Amino acid sequence: MGVEVRELLEAAVSGIGGQTRPGQVEMAEAVNGSMEDGSHLLVQAGTGTGKSLGYLVPALLHALEDRRVVVSTATLALQSQLVDRDMPALLEATEKLLPRRPAYAIQKGRNNYACLHRIREGAPDEDGMLIDVPPPGAVGQQVLELRDWAEQQLLDGEAGDRDHAPSHQYQAWQQVAIAARECLGAQKCPYGDECFAEKAKEQARKADIVITNHALLSIDAFENHTVLPEHDVVIVDEAHELPARVTGAAGAELSPQLVERAAKRARRFVDDDNADDLIDASDALRAALDETREGRIEAANGAVLEAAALVRDAARSVYSDLNKKSDDKDDPDGAKRQSKGAVKEIFDVAERVAALSDLDVVWLIDRERFGRELRIAPLTVAGLLRELVLKDRTVVLTSATLTLGGDFDAIARQVGLRPADKLDLGDELPSIDADSETGPLPWRGLDVGSPFEYEKQGILYVAKHLPPPHRDGLGKKQFEEIIDLITAAGGRTLGLFSSRRAAEAATAAVREATELKVLCQGDAQLGELAREFVDDPETSLFGTLSLWQGIDVPGSTCNLVIIDRVPFPRPDEPLMAARQRAVDEAGGNGFMAVAATHAALLLAQGTGRLIRRTTDRGVVAILDPRIVTARYGGYLRASLPPMWPTADREKVLGALKRLQDS
Fold first, then answer.
1. Which intervals hold domain Helicase ATP-binding (predicted)?
2. 61, 235, 251, 498: which is deepest, by most CB within 10 A?
């Protein structure tokens, strides 16, 4: 081809500004090798490695051979970063070395683009009528602004992408966007030639590299690869989140409100008796849910399953009635087709719930203001990923946190790569993979390390003297420890807590005992809180799960990360509990395979918030002694960056004070 991956990487790094790093070079060559020989690759690339160039450079070489590469991210934010910053800079830096300039495109789910049909014809009300008048109040004003914005986007030749829309609430966006199942389709929609989503798909079909997200990658797999353009390589960034994102995409909800709304939308197109039957079924579902405790639904919950079967049968009748007259002339505004999509979704979910397959988990939650609803998700997605994603294409999975307990086994099992040599959750559960025709797939794991010297830059402090945490939350001794630590640090603290209640209680304790400024998740929008935290080094920020993985604060803003407890899943969390039980019943260790793996991943992500560049220094303080006293402690510690460990409280307080003074 004339240019080697190392040469192209050096040109890219030099052009963008910087130096190639050994780990980055090793990663790029391994990714390139995987693309050439077709084997799957898991790459752990620590923060600061330059991971995105480590896979984008070989992707460029692969694309030049007219073999399309799909890059998938967990978050829309990283997806946008790759498209708006990384790819343009990479192409500019390497242009002189390439025989042609590879094309790239971004593709998101249809609901991320404004829908011109919704904007010009209106959104359906509860009776299925398309209403052009927006709702009153602030949401209505936002709808009007979004409509004007979308029309201007069309005139300017822009994407109509929600990320570039004026500030708005979720309810407002739903008035100008549409779900894929309710879409009329480009051929039947009067605005199909102008459609933002269709234009994005067309650009993706012309591109050498398509950047998408895990949710759309999952939908493409479930839809027989008809969503994304044909490709033979997938690069999965933020791969530690892939199993959870696929689980979400393969999951669904069923509530009385959704059933009733679908019935009302269909009423003007079907016999009244059929619509009434679906409304009656929604009432039966509501009554059954009201009499059932929250938690997992099993065979003993006969009333709920019978109600789901009633919904299934009634939805089938309504859907059949809707299909009797399918002439487009009977549906000039597309309301009937949208109604069919809503009813078909109700039928599909109700059928799945009523079947109560061993491969699914069904549970009931109470959403307070929104009422009770059923949720359903796969017991495992390992088989799905293996059969629908891994079997027919080369897949590279990368993240800063892929090795848990010191190896790749856990994530390999979760994504369907691990051969069946152990009883564990994934392809080792016989009931899950009984119909699988795919044997073990070739793969290898590679840890390219990190440019950071964790042993010199960070201290891992375990407060071994504290009592183990209990269900009632943080106690007096934990509050005293937090106050002493944050005082020694002079603020500059990111507090990662296992619950909103714990974060709020710790915030209140520090505010009462000190003059330090502490922000708490929920005080304002998370983005606003993060900006204030970064702008004022002496400010601290306390919060829950979204802070464990979603915040990047290099420098003196964050000299201390506090973790209140090992973040095991709640024992009453139905999906995790079901997975743990399934492993136990298969003869494995459910706690280690599910709960400990979940905790190890979050701990690795949380401790990774401290060191974000080579000049960062600080302390990660874990207030849960079980990480050194429990039998599973070694597994958890092996999942963390190799910081200098200590249980010496005075040394830690002294180190924090010195950092504050420096």
1. 10-290
2. 235
